[in-house]
Amino acid sequence: MYQPPHFREDDLGVQHALIRAHPLGLLITAGASGLMANSVPFHLDAAASEKGILRLHLAKANPQWRDIEAGADVLAVFQGADAYITPSWYQTKQETGKVVPTWNYAIVQMRGKARVIDDAAWLLAQINAITTQQEGPRDRPWAAVGDAPDDFIRAQLKGIIGVEIEIAAIEGKWKVSQNRPVADREGVAAGLGEGTGQADLVRRYGGLTEK
């Protein structure tokens, strides 16, 4: 990933937080089937290794897992808050007119060694982990084990296969107007509006509030 120094985010905790907040990542492989990409919900176990382990499952009908089993390179991409940035928000537009539109975003990319796991107990644990993560904030959370018949769950498990990725390399890029003058950053934050994810990032990374 192209990484200008002022957009780098190397804090592992911040990178992990983005993955947890946006767990639907893009799983990309380059194997016998060629380049392949699938959107998949991931569960992160940060304590399982130095940089963490990602766990997911794929449909057995999906050929991507066979490429992984054969040793295909794996890349996972997690997209956070993003927004189009109009030059109209820049003070510089009024001063010189030398401005162009851009796009702000926060993104994490990771690479690692992946292995395929065909084990019902592992799959059930993975499903429960990602479900609990998403259902936890709900008033009446759905529980994978308790809310569906056992025979139905067993039948569903037969149609999927697990993948575990130990993160070997992880990069974060927070492109949130850090390269603009302070007045431009303030204009972007105001233009995006209070309470929006990108506005909060512009304020934090632009020094307009404490990071």
Q: Can you walk through the features of this model?
A:
- This protein has 211 residues and is α+β, with helices and mostly antiparallel strands.
- Helices cover 31% and strands 34% of the residues.
- The protein has seven helices and seven strands.
- The protein has a seven-stranded antiparallel β-sheet with strand order 2-1-5-6-7-4-3, with helices on both faces.
- A hairpin with a 7-residue loop joins strand 3 (43-45) and strand 4.
- Helix 6 (182-192) runs antiparallel to helix 7 (197-205).
- The chain is elongated.
- The two termini are 24 Å apart.
- The mean pLDDT is 93.
**Biggest sheet layout:** 7 strands, antiparallel
Major sheet: order of its strands? 2-1-5-6-7-4-3
Q: Based on Cα principal axes, name the global outline.
A: elongated
The oligomeric status of these chains comes to: single chain
How large a portion of the residues is in β-strands, by DSSP E? 25-35%
Along the chain, the helix and strand elements come as: HEEEEHEHEHHEHH
Q: In total, how many beta strands?
A: 7
- Helix proportion range: 25-40%
Contiguous helical run count: 7
Question: Which class do the helix and strand fractions yield?
Answer: alpha+beta
pLDDT below 50 for ≥5 consecutive residues: which ranges?
none
Roughly how many Å apart are the termini?
Answer: 24 Å
Mean pLDDT: 93
Rg calculated over all Cα atoms: 20 Å
